[in-house]
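Q: Predict the bound structure with 2-acetamido-2-deoxy-beta-D-glucopyranose.
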Amino acid sequence: MKFVILLFFAEFVSLSDAHLNGPSVNCFNDYKTTMICDFTSDKPLNCGGYSLDFVSELQEHFTCVFVNRERDSNHLFKCGCTVEMPEFVIADNFNANLLKEGKVLNSRNISAIDKIKPQAPEILSVTQTGDGNFNVTWKTNYSENSVFGKSLKTQLSYKKKGEADEVASGYNCTGTFCIIPGSELEPSSEYVIKARSYSTKYGTEFSDWSNEVEWITSESTERMLKIIIPIFFVLLVINICALYWCCTKLKAKWWDRIPNPSNDIKKILPGNPKVFIPKQYDPSSYHIDFPTISAAEEKSW
Ligand SMILES: *[C@@H]1O[C@H](CO)[C@@H](O)[C@H](O)[C@H]1NC(C)=O
Ligand SMILES: *[C@@H]1O[C@H](CO)[C@@H](O)[C@H](O)[C@H]1NC(C)=O
Ligand SMILES: *[C@@H]1O[C@H](CO)[C@@H](O)[C@H](O)[C@H]1NC(C)=O
Ligand SMILES: *[C@@H]1O[C@H](CO)[C@@H](O)[C@H](O)[C@H]1NC(C)=O
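A: Predicted complex:
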């Protein structure tokens, strides 16, 4: 009895070994001619000696040799390989055998259409349109006439230069250009944008991110007004002050030339003025129409 259980246990272990031996490999193709595979581990990996042998339905062999890659974003150790094949078609199936030093660790079937990761697009330009929006253009490396090329969408991610990726804004676009409304951007700021392709129709992964393109937004009219209006008021105040200064100068000059009648009378008659005063002299009953300051002012205008 003990022996049977032991035998059963040994067999179970070897069976599961056959299935689980070796790392679990992830493969993606770009729906062109390149298959890229990798596997990761939290322990340091020695990728030398690992390879993946693809066998097509026509019994052609394509060998992908693993090399150490940079640690991924989760800081896992990574082995990766790349292999070129004839152009993929939807119906392509491969039997993939993972080998270590020539020994098969495991094998599985991979269908070309299962796991597609498109090639990254390339951003061509960001230009301001007449209405203050921004036209972003890009190209993918897939024919626009192919079913796959037509199904590709582009995800744009833009942010102010220097900001973290987490705060980036996104846009999903079809075709080869997309309009970002100027109202969503801050004026006179530096922005960076990148793009990646995906196809929901083919259930693809996202491509890698494209090149980043920078652009600077222009001054807004509102901001321009905020700058111009205070300057305008300062100039206006300076003008008013200058004008006032000129007027007082002019008036003083002009006013000084008008003889002062009361002074003149005093000069002409230095003697005792009482002699000439009539008996019932009441100065308030006399109204002499001398030019007043306000009258002079009116004349000068
Ligand atoms: C892969 O598919 C072939 C037939 O298409 C089948 O004979 C084989 O057993 C499959 N291998 C695996 C590991 O599923
Ligand atoms: C954006 O640019 C593309 C390529 O130059 C052009 O075909 C498209 O008409 C432009 N779109 C707008 C709204 O200006
Ligand atoms: C575009 O695809 C071709 C294969 O069809 C490839 O040789 C070329 O390197 C690709 N270009 C870019 C920029 O990925
Ligand atoms: C764009 O599409 C992707 C995938 O369907 C989705 O995860 C993302 O939230 C979308 N982004 C926007 C801004 O709609």
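A: The longest strand covers residues 103-111.
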